[in-house]
Structures are given as structure tokens and as C-alpha cells.
UniProtKB/TrEMBL annotation:
Pfam families: RVT_1 (PF00078)
Reverse transcriptase domain sequence ranges: 34-300
Protein's recorded name: Reverse transcriptase domain-containing protein
Lineage: Eukaryota, Metazoa, Ecdysozoa, Arthropoda, Hexapoda
Biological process according to GO: DNA biosynthetic process
Organism annotation: Euphydryas editha
Amino acid sequence: MKNNKAPGFDLITKEILMQLPRKAIVFITTLFNGVLRTQHFPTMWKVSIISMIHKPGKPPEHATSYRPISLLPVLSKVFERILLNRLLPLLEVNEAIPKHQFGFRKHHSTIEQVHRVCDKIRHSLEAKEYCSAVFLDIQQAFDKVWHKGLLYKIKTLIPHTYYTLMNSYLTNRMFQVRESGDASEIYKISAGVPQGSVLGPILYTMYTADLPQTAQVMNATFADDTALLASSTDPQIASSILQDSLNKVGNWLQKWRIKASASKSTHITITLRKGNCPPVQLENNTLPQSDSVKYLGIHLDRRLTWKKHIKMKRDETNIRFRTMYWLLARNSKLSVDNKLLIYKMILKPVWTYGIQLWGSACSSNLTIIQRLQNGILRTLSNAPWFLTNSEIHEALDIKTVKEEIQQSSTNYNKRLDNHPNDLAAELIKITYNKRLKRHDIQTLQSRW
């Protein structure tokens, strides 16, 4: 745990626990063993303190202008970590977590899930098919988990002793709002997994593990971000296949009291051909259609050219650069080494996110990012006009965009080779006859 974490209802911090003598550690061990033996979660550990964080630019008089942060007792988090280490092996043996769920799992990342989506799209483009894809927006996914439904599902997944403990863990939870020294009354929590807890993410994963799957539709989930993709040479058939899957998903959402926002969900047709797939519905609500969609922080366009994603990352990096211009300007008194540190820690991660995927874009699109980096490096180094961009990169020991792509793709391919999830490991092994003159992920390191 981090040292700067705020304490919970009991006011015990990590620093206090680290300074305890051996006798107190033995007492805490006895307490943890007692919780496991009696299968009763202490009531004091089930009280969360809600701290309100004001959103920048929002009117302070509106309740929606604040982001609630839940603070739980540190001892509760320590015990949950111990319990989680015991539950994970049981869930892996029972295959309780579906392979298409990449959220809150060790050795899984958003890049690999987006890669799965892109691989499905690439196959459709190569086969001259229409890829009809839906990206669902789940409303307050973690806060609206139905406790009785969750307990019903996990009863068959974990031993009875752990089930009884989880029943005690979820029931009779309470919260109190504190702001500027004032505190509200204590209220009961009747739904949702505990925010800020260690067990919350895995409980949500278990709750949504039985999301309906269809043979002809690819499911891609990362926590509550859900994508469904279906392909066919006929746009009518592609949407029909996707609609059948959405009907099953809609019934499942109603059964388990999960609400999806149709207005915030997106239906997109990805193809090189003209026309769009017919619209689809979720719970009798037509999903809005778009030519691009943002999934896990990466923008996917109709033809998978990465043009919109690259321009969005350029604009986002420019905004941050202008915000910090007083530090990175030519006349700034900050040393070049410190300026480079700011660039590497704050600016560069913005445009390098997902570079393993969008690095396959055409050279004209990659030049957009290279020009961006050239301008920033020239400014922060106060380089004279006669120095070339390559000389500046060499002097500052900064890789070019193409060199960054080569290194990132090489490391990414090595990670996929040893990936524990078959769905991710197969991405590097899939081969197919290429019709389009496009670069793929596997050959990025040898592209230049």
C-alpha cells in the first residue's frame, strides 16, 4: 500500500501498522484468523468515509459537480488482500473468469483487448466483409451490483465457508459523507461492490462472468467496457447476427438488474465498402450510429486507418504542452535535463499509449506525431535554427517515432508469446492471406 493513502473510519494509517511491535502483529493475526474461522466480517470494517472531490470547471453548488471517493479502513484492505490470494486460485481452477474478460487480471492490459478487436476488424477488411460492432455503456456498473444476485452466483464458485464470509462482507455496509470537518449521518448501502476495496473488482468480474456469448459474435470486455462484433459479406446478415446477440444481452441485463445506456452506447460499421449495416437495438432502444468510436482510450475509425486517433493524441499532447509551456519554453530557467524529464513523464505517455497498435498506420499519419515531437524537443532544448531534427534527437537521446514503434512492437510481441490467456497468445500466431497493402502488428519491428 502507498504511504499517502488516507485512513478510513478507524483513523488507522499504513504508517501506524508499520510501526507496531511484534505483539500487536500477533494480535492482528489472531483477529484475521478469527474472521476466517467465524466467517464474520467486522462491522467497523464495513463503514466507508465518502470524501467529495470537486470537478474542475463545475459549479460548486451542484451535487453532480463532485466526485465521491470512498475511504475504507486499512486493516480491512489488508485482510481483503489475504482473502483475495486464497480466492484467485479457486477461481482459476473453476474457470470462473471468462477468457474474454481482460479487466482486473494479472498480465492483462487494455492494449491486448483492443488488439483482439482490431484483429477481428482486420480479418473482416481482408475478406471484404462488413463488421457490425456495438460498444456498450454500462451505467454505474460497480455501484448498482445486486447483492442477492451476486451471492447467488458466487455460491457455486467458492467453498461454503468463503461464501458465508462474503455474505457477511456485503451485507449491512454503511457510509458517511465528510466535508470540511462536517459529517453526515451514517446510511446503509443496499447495492454495489465496495468502492476502493480490494475485493470489489473481482466481485464485479464474477457477477458479470456469465455474459451471454454467441458463436458468430466476438465478445471483448474490460471491466464494464463491453464490445460485441459480428462480420458478414452482407450488411443485413451482420446486423442480424449482432441483433440476436444483443437480444440475449438485453434479457441478461434485465434479469441481473444491470442498466445499459442506449444513448451513450455506439454502433459502428467498419468496412472498406460503401453503405452501413442496418441499425440495431438494445432493450427496444435504437443505438446511435457513428463513423468512429473510442474504446479503452483508443479511437477506432470506419476503415481502421488510425487517422483520428493520431490527431486526437496530437491535440491532447499540444494542450498539455501549452499548459506547461512556462516550464518548457526556450527562456525557461529550468535545465534541459529537467525539461526532458517532464516531457518523458507527462507529455510522451499521451501519444505513446497504444503505439503497439496505431504504429501500423501509414507513414503520412505517423509524420503527424513526429512533427509534434520535433517541435517540442526544439523548444525545450532551445535549439538554433540550423540544427536538424535528427541531430536534436541524437543530442537529447530521444528515439524517433518510428524507432519507438519498433521497440514497443518488439517488446509487445515477446509479451504475447508468453501470455497466459489463449485469446491474447493466439494474436501473434494468427496468419492469413493479405489482400490489403497494410502493415500488421507482427511485422512492425521490421517495417523500417
